[in-house]
Amino acid sequence: MNALDRLIALFSKLPGIGKKSAGRITYHILDNPALAAALAKELSNLHQAVKRCGVCGAFTETDPCPICADPARDHSLICVIECAQDLRIIEEGREFNGVYHVLGGLIAPLEGVSPANLTIDKLIERIGKNNARELILALNPTVEGDTTALYIQKTLKGYPVEITRLASGMPVGGNIEYIDKLTLSRSFRGRVKI
Question: Radius of gyration (Cα) for the chain, nearest Å?
Fold first, then answer.
């Protein structure tokens, strides 16, 4: 395997990038030496510059991260997310003003991921330390997400914290004709009074 094939194979291991896209990226980099140099520099420095926040587990260049260090945010409101990427997506919505807790995955016994592999113990510590009044479980509505949410709910049963979950159901602009049965079912269960 030559250098071109190796790079295409590496790019195709990235999420959402197939072999064709990996090939296009590789050839684009070959045609742009300045881009290749900048990309190589950033990739080689990435793990030295970016670390996990010691409080929430998000990726940051400072510890604690700017969100955890911000006194204007509501530290009694903790949004529990699967991975650091979810934080960025929620922050772009500019709707949430609390803090985050990154679990580092979801419970998935078939993949060997148990509660011990996640940061649930650290979450429990934070609840007491922050006098948390609400945990928002912003986990994907999948079997693993539901299992993790249920586990957290049962684990925190005796704690004086309200546990909520993001609403799931029909998207804005969605058409009932195209909604799958599970989404429609969740829409009915999660309906709100108007």
Answer: 20
CA distance 94 to 88: 10
AA identity, residue 132: A
Tens digits of per-residue pLDDT, 75-126?
999 999 999 999 999 999 899 999 999 999 999 999 999 999 999 999 999 9
Beta bridge partners of 136: 79, 164
Tokens linked to 66: 């700017």
Chain mean pLDDT for the chain: 92
Going by the DSSP 8-state scheme, the letter that residue 113 receives in this structure is: B
Q: How far apart are CA 178 and CA 141, in angstroms?
A: 18
Count of alpha carbons within 13 Å of 72, Cβ hemisphere only? 2
